[in-house]
Specification:
This protein has helices at about 15-25, 45-50, 70-80, 90-105, 115-125, 130-155, 165-180, 190-200, 200-205, and strands at about 5-10, 30-35, 60, 65-70. The chain is an alpha+beta fold. It has 2 domains: about 5-85, Glutaredoxin; about 90-205, Glutathione S-transferase Yfyf (Class Pi), Chain A, domain 2. α1 (about 15-25) packs antiparallel against α7 (about 165-180) and α7 (about 165-180) packs across α8. Bound molecules: glutathione.
Length: about 220
Amino acid sequence: MNKFTLYSYFRSSTAYRARIALNIKEVSYQQIPIHLLEDGGQQHKQEYLKLNPAAEVPTLVHNEKVISQSFAIIEYLDEIIADHPLFPKDAFGRAKVRQICENINCGIHPLTNLKVMQYLTNDMNSTDELNSKWQQHWIKKGLVALEKILETTSGTFAYGDRVSCADIFIIPQIFSANRFGICIEDCPHLKKINQNCLVLEAFKNAHPFCQPDTPENLRTNK
Ligand SMILES: N[C@@H](CCC(=O)N[C@@H](CS)C(=O)NCC(=O)O)C(=O)O
């Protein structure tokens, strides 16, 4: 029997990636919420650190096999479930999809992660205003680069006309960008990809506002 459990936080963009991939692969899974702010951050609890020593979500447990890092989780799912492949067949296509993912995974997300923002506030005496400037700077810079790449790779989706891993990274990043007040109106490719993905069930059901741990005031029916 296959049992999948995802340790997740509704608003985490990296957990959002994992949820989209699980949905595309049509895997039914249980979610265990890890609240990143309550109780000083449940990701820091001893019990959870045994699963994920980096104190981050997501963590996937598949029949007692524990995997963290969203990219590793997504590639694992893609390797064990052949249907709905998340990467193109050719080496160049796969490299381009990974290039897009890494632009987000390494070039945007870590610079704006909760622990970085908390360090800026608590140890570097930064203010909310400076923090917001910091987040906006790195997200905008990253999205401008991404838009340029997508000019040459996108069709209906980020890489041609099939959903790929690149879309799984892009949609949560756009959600975070919106959350921090960044609008993608000037990025026609990102805008198009966002519109085309958000109507798909796999993306709709993974949305932060319809998860088991979504607070009532943010909850929507997809
Ligand atoms: N590279 C990791 C990053 C995971 C990550 O940093 N997740 C964030 C939420 S989006 C987190 O758990 N942060 C906890 C913290 O900063 O304390 C991945 O892709 O899974």
